[in-house]
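Postdoc handover notes: sequence design on the structure in folder B. Input C-alpha coordinates:
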Protein backbone atom coordinates (compact mmCIF):
# COMPACT_ATOMS: atom_id res chain seq x y z
CA UNK A 1 0.00 0.00 0.00
CA UNK A 2 1.31 3.44 -0.90
CA UNK A 3 0.24 7.08 -1.27
CA UNK A 4 -0.17 6.84 -5.03
CA UNK A 5 -2.65 3.99 -4.69
CA UNK A 6 -4.65 6.09 -2.24
CA UNK A 7 -4.75 8.91 -4.79
CA UNK A 8 -5.83 6.45 -7.48
CA UNK A 9 -8.68 5.23 -5.28
CA UNK A 10 -9.87 8.77 -4.60
CA UNK A 11 -9.88 9.72 -8.28
CA UNK A 12 -11.65 6.52 -9.39
CA UNK A 13 -14.49 7.24 -6.98
CA UNK A 14 -14.70 10.89 -8.05
CA UNK A 15 -14.66 10.06 -11.77
CA UNK A 16 -16.63 6.81 -11.65
CA UNK A 17 -14.20 4.78 -13.77
CA UNK A 18 -10.53 3.92 -14.14
CA UNK A 19 -10.43 5.36 -17.68
CA UNK A 20 -11.61 8.81 -16.54
CA UNK A 21 -9.36 8.72 -13.48
CA UNK A 22 -6.40 7.86 -15.70
CA UNK A 23 -7.15 10.84 -17.96
CA UNK A 24 -7.34 13.13 -14.94
CA UNK A 25 -4.04 11.82 -13.55
CA UNK A 26 -2.33 11.69 -16.97
CA UNK A 27 -1.58 7.99 -16.58
CA UNK A 28 -2.54 4.88 -18.52
CA UNK A 29 -5.70 3.08 -17.46
CA UNK A 30 -3.83 -0.24 -17.45
CA UNK A 31 -1.24 1.07 -14.97
CA UNK A 32 -3.94 2.24 -12.54
CA UNK A 33 -5.97 -0.95 -12.97
CA UNK A 34 -2.92 -3.10 -12.25
CA UNK A 35 -2.04 -1.01 -9.18
CA UNK A 36 -5.57 -1.30 -7.74
CA UNK A 37 -5.60 -5.05 -8.39
CA UNK A 38 -2.29 -5.38 -6.53
CA UNK A 39 -3.73 -3.35 -3.65
CA UNK A 40 -6.82 -5.57 -3.43
CA UNK A 41 -4.61 -8.66 -3.50
CA UNK A 42 -2.39 -7.24 -0.76
CA UNK A 43 -5.37 -6.42 1.46
CA UNK A 44 -7.32 -9.56 0.60
CA UNK A 45 -10.38 -7.40 -0.04
CA UNK A 46 -12.50 -6.29 -2.97
CA UNK A 47 -12.51 -2.48 -2.94
CA UNK A 48 -14.80 -1.87 -5.91
CA UNK A 49 -18.00 -3.19 -7.43
CA UNK A 50 -17.34 -3.25 -11.17
CA UNK A 51 -20.10 -3.02 -13.80
CA UNK A 52 -20.75 -1.62 -17.27
CA UNK A 53 -22.05 1.56 -15.60
CA UNK A 54 -18.74 2.16 -13.83
CA UNK A 55 -17.10 1.46 -10.48
CA UNK A 56 -18.60 1.93 -7.03
CA UNK A 57 -16.68 1.34 -3.80
CA UNK A 58 -17.61 -1.60 -1.60
CA UNK A 59 -18.16 -1.10 2.12
CA UNK A 60 -14.46 -1.86 2.66
CA UNK A 61 -13.56 0.41 -0.26
CA UNK A 62 -15.49 3.32 1.27
CA UNK A 63 -13.63 2.86 4.55
CA UNK A 64 -10.30 2.77 2.69
CA UNK A 65 -11.17 5.95 0.77
CA UNK A 66 -12.25 7.85 3.90
CA UNK A 67 -8.90 7.04 5.57
CA UNK A 68 -7.07 7.85 2.34
CA UNK A 69 -8.57 11.34 2.35
CA UNK A 70 -7.27 11.86 5.89
CA UNK A 71 -3.74 10.82 4.90
CA UNK A 72 -3.67 12.74 1.60
CA UNK A 73 -4.96 15.84 3.41
CA UNK A 74 -2.17 15.60 6.02
CA UNK A 75 0.45 15.20 3.30
CA UNK A 76 -0.94 18.26 1.51
CA UNK A 77 -0.89 20.29 4.75
CA UNK A 78 2.74 19.29 5.33
CA UNK A 79 3.62 20.32 1.78
CA UNK A 80 1.90 23.70 2.23
CA UNK A 81 3.66 24.29 5.57
CA UNK A 82 7.06 23.50 4.08
CA UNK A 83 6.41 25.67 1.01
CA UNK A 84 5.42 28.59 3.25
CA UNK A 85 8.87 28.49 4.87
CA UNK A 86 10.52 29.32 1.57
CA UNK A 87 11.50 32.95 1.25
CA UNK A 88 9.13 34.84 -1.04
CA UNK A 89 6.80 31.87 -1.46
CA UNK A 90 3.57 33.00 -3.12
CA UNK A 91 0.32 32.34 -1.26
CA UNK A 92 -3.18 32.56 -2.61
CA UNK A 93 -6.68 31.67 -1.46
CA UNK A 94 -9.14 30.88 -4.22
CA UNK A 95 -12.74 31.46 -3.14
CA UNK A 96 -16.03 30.82 -4.92
CA UNK A 97 -19.51 31.87 -3.88
CA UNK A 98 -23.04 32.15 -5.20
CA UNK A 99 -24.45 35.67 -5.81
CA UNK A 100 -26.34 35.40 -2.52
CA UNK A 101 -23.03 35.32 -0.65
CA UNK A 102 -21.00 37.81 -2.72
CA UNK A 103 -21.50 40.82 -0.46
CA UNK A 104 -20.67 38.87 2.71
CA UNK A 105 -17.60 37.25 1.11
CA UNK A 106 -16.32 40.62 -0.12
CA UNK A 107 -16.82 42.14 3.35
CA UNK A 108 -14.81 39.25 4.81
CA UNK A 109 -12.04 40.00 2.31
CA UNK A 110 -12.00 43.68 3.35
CA UNK A 111 -11.73 42.65 7.01
CA UNK A 112 -8.85 40.23 6.47
CA UNK A 113 -6.88 41.72 3.59
CA UNK A 114 -4.60 43.86 5.77
CA UNK A 115 -4.09 41.02 8.23
CA UNK A 116 -2.88 38.65 5.50
CA UNK A 117 -0.89 40.99 3.25
CA UNK A 118 1.19 38.11 1.88
CA UNK A 119 -1.90 36.28 0.60
CA UNK A 120 -3.55 36.93 -2.77
CA UNK A 121 -7.32 36.51 -2.49
CA UNK A 122 -9.11 35.44 -5.67
CA UNK A 123 -12.93 35.61 -5.47
CA UNK A 124 -15.19 34.15 -8.15
CA UNK A 125 -19.00 34.30 -8.35
CA UNK A 126 -20.47 31.00 -9.60
CA UNK A 127 -23.68 29.02 -9.43
CA UNK A 128 -24.07 25.90 -7.30
CA UNK A 129 -23.31 23.43 -10.11
CA UNK A 130 -20.10 25.23 -11.05
CA UNK A 131 -18.99 25.36 -7.42
CA UNK A 132 -19.38 21.60 -6.94
CA UNK A 133 -17.40 21.00 -10.14
CA UNK A 134 -14.56 23.30 -9.08
CA UNK A 135 -14.36 21.91 -5.54
CA UNK A 136 -14.31 18.36 -6.92
CA UNK A 137 -11.43 19.28 -9.25
CA UNK A 138 -9.62 21.30 -6.53
CA UNK A 139 -9.81 24.48 -8.63
CA UNK A 140 -10.94 26.52 -5.61
CA UNK A 141 -9.91 26.29 -1.96
CA UNK A 142 -13.10 27.47 -0.34
CA UNK A 143 -16.72 28.04 -1.43
CA UNK A 144 -19.91 29.39 0.10
CA UNK A 145 -23.35 28.35 -1.11
CA UNK A 146 -26.68 26.79 -0.20
CA UNK A 147 -27.34 23.08 -0.78
CA UNK A 148 -29.63 20.39 0.65
CA UNK A 149 -27.57 18.51 3.23
CA UNK A 150 -28.39 15.11 1.72
CA UNK A 151 -26.75 16.21 -1.54
CA UNK A 152 -23.56 17.16 0.29
CA UNK A 153 -23.61 13.94 2.32
CA UNK A 154 -23.56 11.94 -0.91
CA UNK A 155 -20.75 14.13 -2.32
CA UNK A 156 -18.31 13.69 0.56
CA UNK A 157 -16.32 10.76 -0.82
CA UNK A 158 -17.93 10.50 -4.24
CA UNK A 159 -16.75 13.99 -5.21
CA UNK A 160 -14.15 14.63 -2.51
CA UNK A 161 -16.09 17.51 -0.95
CA UNK A 162 -15.82 18.52 2.69
CA UNK A 163 -18.32 20.96 4.20
CA UNK A 164 -19.17 22.97 7.32
CA UNK A 165 -22.52 24.50 8.27
CA UNK A 166 -22.61 28.32 8.36
CA UNK A 167 -26.17 29.57 8.81
CA UNK A 168 -29.83 29.13 7.85
CA UNK A 169 -31.77 31.73 5.86
CA UNK A 170 -35.36 31.97 4.58
CA UNK A 171 -36.99 32.91 1.28
CA UNK A 172 -38.46 36.36 0.65
CA UNK A 173 -40.01 38.08 -2.35
CA UNK A 174 -38.11 41.14 -3.55
CA UNK A 175 -40.11 43.85 -5.35
CA UNK A 176 -40.41 47.54 -6.08
CA UNK A 177 -41.47 49.61 -3.04
CA UNK A 178 -44.60 50.75 -4.91
CA UNK A 179 -45.82 47.24 -5.65
CA UNK A 180 -49.32 46.46 -4.42
CA UNK A 181 -47.86 43.57 -2.39
CA UNK A 182 -45.04 45.54 -0.76
CA UNK A 183 -47.03 46.32 2.41
CA UNK A 184 -47.89 42.67 3.13
CA UNK A 185 -46.45 41.01 6.24
CA UNK A 186 -45.97 37.76 4.31
CA UNK A 187 -46.69 36.69 0.74
CA UNK A 188 -47.91 33.40 -0.79
CA UNK A 189 -47.70 31.79 -4.27
CA UNK A 190 -51.32 32.78 -4.95
CA UNK A 191 -50.50 36.46 -4.49
CA UNK A 192 -47.64 36.11 -7.00
CA UNK A 193 -49.66 34.25 -9.62
CA UNK A 194 -49.97 37.22 -12.00
CA UNK A 195 -46.60 38.85 -11.26
CA UNK A 196 -43.67 38.97 -13.68
CA UNK A 197 -40.95 36.81 -12.11
CA UNK A 198 -37.23 37.27 -12.75
CA UNK A 199 -34.86 34.41 -11.92
CA UNK A 200 -31.11 33.95 -11.61
CA UNK A 201 -29.95 31.51 -14.28
CA UNK A 202 -29.02 28.52 -12.13
CA UNK A 203 -30.53 25.06 -12.03
CA UNK A 204 -30.82 25.21 -8.25
CA UNK A 205 -32.55 28.61 -8.26
CA UNK A 206 -34.90 27.65 -11.08
CA UNK A 207 -35.87 24.44 -9.26
CA UNK A 208 -36.78 26.44 -6.15
CA UNK A 209 -38.93 28.79 -8.21
CA UNK A 210 -40.64 25.97 -10.09
CA UNK A 211 -41.31 24.13 -6.84
CA UNK A 212 -42.93 27.04 -5.01
CA UNK A 213 -44.49 29.34 -7.65
CA UNK A 214 -47.75 28.87 -9.55
CA UNK A 215 -46.50 31.00 -12.45
CA UNK A 216 -43.61 29.02 -13.97
CA UNK A 217 -43.20 31.28 -17.03
CA UNK A 218 -40.28 33.48 -16.02
CA UNK A 219 -40.10 37.06 -17.35
CA UNK A 220 -36.28 37.23 -17.33
CA UNK A 221 -33.66 34.57 -16.65
CA UNK A 222 -30.14 35.97 -16.33
CA UNK A 223 -26.74 35.54 -14.66
CA UNK A 224 -26.46 39.31 -14.32
CA UNK A 225 -27.73 40.28 -10.86
CA UNK A 226 -27.85 43.98 -11.80
CA UNK A 227 -30.20 43.20 -14.71
CA UNK A 228 -32.52 41.33 -12.35
CA UNK A 229 -32.43 44.15 -9.79
CA UNK A 230 -33.22 46.75 -12.48
CA UNK A 231 -36.13 44.64 -13.69
CA UNK A 232 -37.55 44.80 -10.17
CA UNK A 233 -36.89 48.54 -9.83
CA UNK A 234 -38.13 49.66 -13.27
CA UNK A 235 -40.07 46.62 -14.58
CA UNK A 236 -41.70 46.18 -12.27
CA UNK A 237 -41.01 42.50 -11.61
CA UNK A 238 -40.51 40.32 -8.52
CA UNK A 239 -37.98 37.68 -7.55
CA UNK A 240 -37.65 34.98 -4.92
CA UNK A 241 -34.53 35.85 -2.92
CA UNK A 242 -33.07 35.01 0.45
CA UNK A 243 -33.56 37.38 3.36
CA UNK A 244 -29.83 38.17 3.41
CA UNK A 245 -29.44 38.60 -0.37
CA UNK A 246 -30.03 42.32 -0.84
CA UNK A 247 -29.93 43.64 2.70
CA UNK A 248 -26.55 45.35 2.21
CA UNK A 249 -27.25 46.87 -1.20
CA UNK A 250 -28.04 50.49 -1.87
CA UNK A 251 -31.36 49.65 -3.54
CA UNK A 252 -32.78 48.10 -0.38
CA UNK A 253 -31.15 50.60 1.97
CA UNK A 254 -32.66 53.47 -0.01
CA UNK A 255 -36.02 51.66 -0.11
CA UNK A 256 -36.20 51.36 -3.91
CA UNK A 257 -36.71 47.67 -3.30
CA UNK A 258 -38.34 45.89 -0.39
CA UNK A 259 -38.47 42.26 0.68
CA UNK A 260 -41.48 40.40 2.09
CA UNK A 261 -41.16 36.95 3.73
CA UNK A 262 -42.48 34.14 1.52
CA UNK A 263 -44.70 31.31 2.82
CA UNK A 264 -45.84 28.12 1.06
CA UNK A 265 -47.63 27.42 3.39
CA UNK A 266 -44.81 27.87 5.94
CA UNK A 267 -41.54 29.75 5.75
CA UNK A 268 -38.98 28.16 3.38
CA UNK A 269 -35.61 27.68 5.08
CA UNK A 270 -32.31 27.00 3.27
CA UNK A 271 -28.98 26.00 4.81
CA UNK A 272 -25.70 27.61 3.78
CA UNK A 273 -22.36 25.79 3.86
CA UNK A 274 -18.65 26.33 3.52
CA UNK A 275 -17.23 23.78 1.06
CA UNK A 276 -13.61 22.72 0.53
CA UNK A 277 -11.66 19.98 -1.30
CA UNK A 278 -11.50 17.04 1.10
CA UNK A 279 -8.01 15.99 -0.02
CA UNK A 280 -6.60 19.45 0.76
CA UNK A 281 -8.51 20.37 3.89
CA UNK A 282 -8.73 23.95 5.15
CA UNK A 283 -5.56 26.00 5.60
CA UNK A 284 -5.15 28.45 8.48
CA UNK A 285 -5.94 31.40 6.20
CA UNK A 286 -8.99 29.61 4.77
CA UNK A 287 -10.19 28.79 8.28
CA UNK A 288 -9.86 32.46 9.30
CA UNK A 289 -11.80 33.48 6.17
CA UNK A 290 -14.55 30.94 6.85
CA UNK A 291 -14.88 32.18 10.45
CA UNK A 292 -15.18 35.80 9.27
CA UNK A 293 -17.85 34.89 6.69
CA UNK A 294 -19.79 32.99 9.37
CA UNK A 295 -19.54 35.98 11.73
CA UNK A 296 -20.73 38.47 9.09
CA UNK A 297 -23.49 36.23 7.72
CA UNK A 298 -25.07 35.73 11.14
CA UNK A 299 -24.92 39.38 12.28
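Designed sequence:
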Amino acid sequence: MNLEQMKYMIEIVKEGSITKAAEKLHLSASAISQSISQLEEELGLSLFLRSKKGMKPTKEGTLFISKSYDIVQKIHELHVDLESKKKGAAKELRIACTPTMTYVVFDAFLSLNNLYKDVTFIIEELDQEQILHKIKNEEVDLAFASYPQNELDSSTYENGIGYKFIFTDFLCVCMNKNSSNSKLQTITPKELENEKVVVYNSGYVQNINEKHLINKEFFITSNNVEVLKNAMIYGPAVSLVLNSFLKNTINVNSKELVTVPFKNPNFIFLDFWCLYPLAKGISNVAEAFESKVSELATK
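Context for whoever picks this up: The chain has a mean pLDDT of 88. Don't rerun without checking with the PI first.
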